[in-house]
């Protein structure tokens, strides 16, 4: 019965990782990736590694989405700017 | 074997299941709301796990999640402001449901813990969770006009 929570966490990580691959828009992928980071932190916690879970929470729930979204914004802005330049 | 681990399993399965379904289907506004709710539903699960394993240091995980989860949602609200401006996703129903789960879990754990430092920590986690969640929901629904048009 105590293994049920491990199974739940493993399933959540597998589904979230698959969803992150299946989605094709980078902004939506970043959203799924944030949830994947939270699910990974839960998995580490139920496997009795809360220190790894702490760093995973810090990196996965705020830092990785921030970096991805900043990159997406910069690329979009540059492509819009390039389009204006050619016209 | 105690009842806390099965309770945490139910909360985590329900929370992660619904948020994964919400975040991987539908429009952009719905996905952002689901990402916001993942924080609000996983944090009570982590608190229940800490109680179930009998290790109070595990509460630090819930504390960090309650602090950083809304920050992550605010990142999306700020950087997706142009896309979200047309939708103005509200999602107050699911938000209040998640807040209710958080309040119930924190109150039950406070009653079990009894007065002391651990209870103060639990109350801080609950206040951060609910305040951050409501703030992020309000930011998503366009409650702060003039912000995010950079």
Automatic annotation (TrEMBL), chain A:
The keyword Membrane applies. It is found in: Cell membrane. Keywords: Cell membrane, Membrane, Transmembrane, Transmembrane helix. The keyword Transmembrane helix applies. Pfam families: MbhD. GO terms for cellular component: plasma membrane. This is DUF4040 domain-containing protein. It comes from Streptomyces mexicanus.
From TrEMBL, chain B:
It is a multi-pass membrane protein. It is found in: Cell membrane. Pfam families: MrpF_PhaF (PF04066). InterPro entries: MrpF/PhaF-like. Its main location: membrane. The chain crosses the membrane at residues 61-81, 93-112, 119-140. One of its GO terms (cellular component) is plasma membrane. GO terms for molecular function: monoatomic ion transmembrane transporter activity. This is MrpF/PhaF family protein. It comes from Streptomyces mexicanus.
């Amino acid at each position: 019965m105590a293994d049920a929570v491990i199974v739940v966490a493993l399933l959540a990580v597998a589904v979230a990782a698959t969803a992150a691959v299946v989605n094709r828009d980078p902004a939506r992928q970043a959203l799924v990736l944030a949830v994947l980071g939270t699910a990974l932190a839960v998995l580490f916690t139920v496997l009795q590694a809360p220190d790894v879970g702490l760093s995973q929470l810090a990196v996965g729930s705020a830092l990785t989405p921030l970096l991805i979204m900043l990159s997406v914004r910069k690329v979009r802005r540059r492509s819009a700017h390039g389009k204006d330049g050619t016209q | 074997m105690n009842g806390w681990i099965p309770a945490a399993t139910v909360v985590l399965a329900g929370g992660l299941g619904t948020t994964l379904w919400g975040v991987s289907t539908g429009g952009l506004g719905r996905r952002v709301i689901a990402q916001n709710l993942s924080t609000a539903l996983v944090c009570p699960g982590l608190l229940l796990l800490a109680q179930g394993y009998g290790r109070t240091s595990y509460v630090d995980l819930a504390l960090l999640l309650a602090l950083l989860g809304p920050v992550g949602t605010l990142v999306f609200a700020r950087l997706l402001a142009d896309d979200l401006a047309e939708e103005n996703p509200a999602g107050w129903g699911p938000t209040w449901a998640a807040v209710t789960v958080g309040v119930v879990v924190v109150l039950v754990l406070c009653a079990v813990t009894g007065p002391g430092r651990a209870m103060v920590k639990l109350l801080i986690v609950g206040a951060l969770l609910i305040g951050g969640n409501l703030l992020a929901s309000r930011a998503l629904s366009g409650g702060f006009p003039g912000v995010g048009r950079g």
